[in-house]
Design goal:
Helix content: 55-70%
Order of helices and strands: HHHHHHEEHHEEHEEH
Radius of gyration: 43 Å
Largest sheet: 4 strands, antiparallel
Number of helices: 10
Low-confidence stretches: 1-8, 234-279
Mean pLDDT: 80
Distance between the termini: 95 Å
Shape: elongated
Strand content: 5-15%
């Protein structure tokens, strides 16, 4: 029994310890729900991202390319992984993990009302205890007359505080003890779900490895793209093809037109000499590292903001083309050109850059 006027009854170390453990369980269990949901969402996003990546690679090939059956195998393997393992993992996590944890969280909310009652009773008891202490120390004549009623109120406050404190501690202890009953099955289910998911992932990786070995072991037979040379209609046109003409502004073009005439238009009206009309076979095409004489000069290009870059020698242009700094649609100027053109439009330039 506590002494009247002292607050030692409201200092309960056991309650403080239980409350700290209870709050720890409650907070971390609530965080677990968020983490389970995040894992499920991330797995689905990963599966979807890989599927989109495979489709993106597939889109770089033409429909007739013999690689497509292998890409279809990869897509099917991913679909099976998502359906048989990722979606199953999500269902198992929801049913065996999230639902159980949610039920435990609901139980953890049960003591909330009792904890509020206990806090309210504690405040009431501390106030009555303080009033009683002041009456005992008071020298007023009526202090003794007020003492019986104050003592009665203090005893009532003490009884209510003890009752609510005991009930609150019991509820918190029960929930702490129930933690294993709720969370042990969650842990077991999670381990099994992860093991199943890992098995499915290994199976899918095995299929991908097998597809890779098939592609490497039997090179695909692709029909090569060829361009047939056009025959010249006359020797005169062949001679005109290499001549230069000048306009009033001093511009010139290797196609016999003015500097304002596009290379594409000139190409469309120009015929090429046949091997027989030239009298001898053409020289062998340059290797990938040689620079054709007509391209061995300073070069400029327009970046994505249409700003002029250069000058560069052809080796630099080749390096930028192979590193994708420039591409088929990049506008360039150099060599024997009379105007800006896309790389793909300049005869032989793309091959020389590759």
């Amino acid at each position: 029994m506590s002494k009247m006027g002292r607050l030692d009854i409201s200092n309960d170390e056991q309650y403080d310890e239980l409350y700290a453990r209870y709050q720890h369980k409650k907070k971390n269990t609530q965080d677990t729900i968020k983490q389970f949901k995040q894992v499920s969402e991330n797995l689905h996003a990963l599966s979807l991202s890989i599927s989109q990546l495979v489709q993106g690679i597939a889109n770089t090939y033409e429909n007739s390319d013999p690689i497509h059956p292998h890409i279809e195998q990869m897509s099917r393997a991913l679909e099976q992984f998502d359906e048989n393992y990722v979606q199953l993992f999500q269902k198992e996590v929801q049913f065996n993990c999230v639902d159980n944890v949610t039920n435990y969280i609901a139980e953890l909310e049960a003591p909330k009302q009792m904890l509020l009652q206990r806090d309210k009773a504690k405040i009431e008891y501390d106030e009555k205890s303080t009033q009683m202490k002041k009456l005992m120390e008071s020298k007023k004549p009526n202090a003794a007359q007020k003492m019986p009623l104050a003592r009665e109120k203090l005893q009532h406050a003490e009884s209510l505080y003890n009752t609510t404190r005991h009930q609150a501690k019991k509820q918190m202890a029960d929930l702490i003890n129930a933690h294993g009953r709720h969370m042990d099955p969650v842990l077991v289910s999670m381990n099994r779900s992860v093991a199943s998911l890992a098995g499915g992932m290994n199976n899918t990786l095995g299929q991908y490895d097998s597809i890779a070995e098939t592609i490497e072991g039997s090179p695909l037979k692709r029909q090569q793209v060829t361009v047939e040379a056009e025959e010249s209609s006359s020797v005169g046109e062949m001679q005109n093809f290499g001549s230069e003409s000048h306009d009033g502004s001093g511009g010139h073009t290797p196609f016999g037109g003015s500097s304002g005439t596009s290379t594409t238009a000139a190409l469309q009206r120009t015929s090429y000499p046949s091997h027989s009309s030239m009298g001898s076979a053409p020289p062998p095409p340059p290797t990938s590292r040689e620079i054709p004489p007509e391209f061995n000069s300073e070069w400029y290009y327009l970046d994505e903001n249409l700003e002029q870059k250069g000058p560069y020698d052809f080796h630099d242009m080749r390096r930028m083309f192979q590193s994708l700094t420039i591409n088929d649609s990049t506008h360039v100027f150099g060599g024997e050109m009379s105007d800006w053109q896309e790389i793909a439009e300049v005869v032989g330039l793309k091959m020389a850059l590759s």
